[in-house]
Amino acid sequence: MASTWHGYTPIEQLQYGQVYPASDLFSLGAACFFLLTIFSKMMANG
Description:
- By secondary structure, the chain is an all-alpha fold.
- The protein contains two helices and no strands.
- The chain has helices at about 10-15, 20-45.
């Protein structure tokens, strides 16, 4: 059983335990959004 981080886990996986190819895109998008927002905050702080 793999562990999941709820912020990166698609809703259908949390609710029903089902995973689709689009689920990977959701997780990738969530991770990219996180990295971009952290990077922009770091750049703003110097």
